[in-house]
Amino acid sequence: MARCCFAVPLTLLLLSVASAQNPPQSDPQAVSLATQAMAALTNGTAVSDVTLTGNAAWISGSDNETGAATFRAKGTGESRMDLSLTGGNRTEIRNNTAHFPQGESISTDGSVNQWPLHNCWINANWFFPALSALAATSDSSLIFTYVGLENRGNGTVQHIQVYRYLSGQKATLIALTQAVSTENIYLDSTSLLPVAFTYNTHPDDDASTRISVEIDFSNYKAVNGVQIPMHVQKFISGELALDIVLTRAVLNSGLSDGLFAVQ
Burial, 159: exposed, middle or buried (Cβ in 10 Å; 0-12, 13-18, 19+)? Predict the structure, then answer.
C-alpha cells in the first residue's frame, strides 16, 4: 500500500474529500448504455470465461516480433496473455480476486516484474469486451458516467467513463485510485459494440506520470452467439505496440483460477 502514496493534484484531493462525505453514484444513462452494450455483445448468453488464440505482432521501438498468441479471461477480474514470439515468450497476468488487484509480466528471460498497485486498477480484461467493466455495472465501487455523443474515426460513438471508488479509505487514496483507474469506453453509436478503450498507465515508481494506452476493436464475429472482436490493436503513447489477429475463440470451458495466479 505504501507504493500508492504519491502526490495528487490539490483539486483532485479536494474533490475526494467531498466525495468521501457523499459517495458518488453512477449516471443512469451511462449504466443503461453499458447494459445495452453487453446485450449487443452477448445476446443474453452468460459468459464465464474465454480462451482466444491467434497471431500477434509485438512492437517496441526497433524490436518487432511476431508469433502465436493466447489470451484467457475468467470473470471480470482475471486475465492472462501468453505470446510465443520470435524473440521468446512473454506473459502478462492480472488478478483482481484478492483484496487488492495484482499484476505481473514475465519477460523472455523468465524474469518476473510485479506491477505496482497503481497500474493494477484498470480493467483486467482489456482484450475481451464481454468480460470488461461493461459487465460489472452491479459493482457499486465502479462509477459510470456519461460523457456524450462524439465523432471518432469515421463514425460516431457513445462515450462513457468508469473509475473505481474506494469507500471508507483515506482521501488521498480515494483520489489516487480514481485517477489511475479511470477508463474511457467508446461504443459504436449504432450497434453499441465497443470500438475502443482508453486509459493511462504509469512508470512503476511514479503514479503521477501518465502514459496513454488505447485498445481498438474491429472485425467482430459471432461465436456461439457472442460478438468477439477478431482484430485487437494496442497503442502506447500513440504508437502501435501490439497487433492481434484472432482465429479461434472458446467460451465457458471452465478455466482454472490457477492459470491466473500471480507470483
Answer: buried
